[in-house]
Design goal:
Largest sheet: 2 strands, antiparallel
Structural class: mainly alpha
Distance between the termini: 47 Å
Order of helices and strands: HEEHHHHHHHHHHHH
Shape: globular
Number of strands: 2
Radius of gyration: 25 Å
Helix content: over 70%
Strand content: under 5%
Strand order of the largest sheet: 1-2
Number of helices: 13
Length: about 300
């Protein structure tokens, strides 16, 4: 009898491995091989001079990494990326928590809740390129925003939003906030709806206020989802490209203060500088891993 059971288990396991084959093949071809190739290329000098003459590939060891730290403005573009991500993520998580709390509170009896949940998620479905072109038109010097501000007397002449560091970074952060707060709200709402209502009932019997219930019950239970949202948002922030690329026409204006790490990488790949591009990709991989571990460890310590 045991032999039959063991045989059935082995047979079922075999089918599991068979179903895993497509994922493994796709992972190896589109992720593992490119990752190994990128790391390999980062140790070589390989670029096209004037776009015509191929230089290399010549093994140079860690010279590409040295160039990034000494001449590549790596820290400047990393700082730009983090500033714009933080400026968009803080309002994103605050607004998402408030909306999720309102939608999940049965005592409010909100009418049309499914409709509003669908509406706030819609910006996430719009392509970033279309969103960027819309904002580029709205906030241009001859756009409707400038016309409105001039008509109510705030500005005497058109304000160039793209020529000022603060306003340009604000627009990038604001667009990322608008595109992603709906997705974050749905995730947090799903977590809140899964919380056992007996916790809330017991807290109310003990005389806890709504604020105390939110901070003492809801947030601690939501911690795993909050960690997931923060890490995925951080990874997405480090990969920020399409919005500032289109909004500034790839220049990172003004004075490259909206130039992100991926925009910087794109310039090297566009000029076919594979060595520096590979080194920058490896550095981004390391930075993403380190920051994700820090966020995860910080939240683990907060639980103790």
């Amino acid at each position: 009898m045991n032999k039959k059971k063991n045989g059935n288990v082995v047979r079922y396991n075999r089918w599991g491995y068979i179903f895993l084959i497509p994922f493994v093949v796709v992972f190896i071809i589109f992720q593992l091989i490119p990752l190994i190739s990128t790391i390999y290329n980062s140790f070589f000098e390989h670029y096209f001079k004037n776009g015509l003459t191929e230089i290399g590939p010549t093994f140079v060891g860690l010279e590409n990494y040295k160039t990034l730290f000494t001449k590549g403005d790596l820290f400047k573009y990393f700082g730009n990326t983090m500033i714009m991500w933080i400026a968009g993520f803080i309002p994103q998580i605050v607004v998402s928590l408030l909306l999720a709390a309102w939608f999940s509170d049965p005592s409010l009896r909100l009418k049309g809740r499914p409709f509003f949940q669908s509406v706030i998620y819609l910006p996430n479905l719009i392509m970033a390129s279309a969103f960027s072109m819309l904002f580029f038109t709205l906030f241009s010097t001859v756009g409707p925003i400038n016309q409105i501000l001039q008509s109510i007397g705030i500005f005497d002449k058109p304000y160039s939003f793209m020529s000022n560091t603060g306003s340009a970074r604000f627009l990038v952060a604001f667009m990322n906030f608008l595109m992603w707060f709906g997705n974050t709200t749905i995730l947090l709402l799903a977590g809140m709806l899964g919380i056992d209502t007996t916790y809330y009932e017991a807290a109310e019997v003990d005389g806890a206020t709504a604020t105390q219930i939110f901070f003492r019950i809801t947030l601690p239970i939501l911690r795993p989802i909050l960690i997931y949202v923060m890490i995925t948002s951080l990874i997405g922030g480090l990969q920020m490209f399409d919005v500032p690329q289109i909004l500034t026409s790839g220049s990172g204006s003004p004075a490259r203060t909206t130039m992100t790490l991926i925009m910087y990488l794109n310039k090297h790949l566009y000029s076919k500088n594979y060595g520096i591009g590979g080194a920058l990709s490896v550095m981004m991989f390391i930075i993403t891993g380190i920051l994700s571990i820090i966020v995860f460890k910080f939240n683990q310590q907060s639980e103790k």
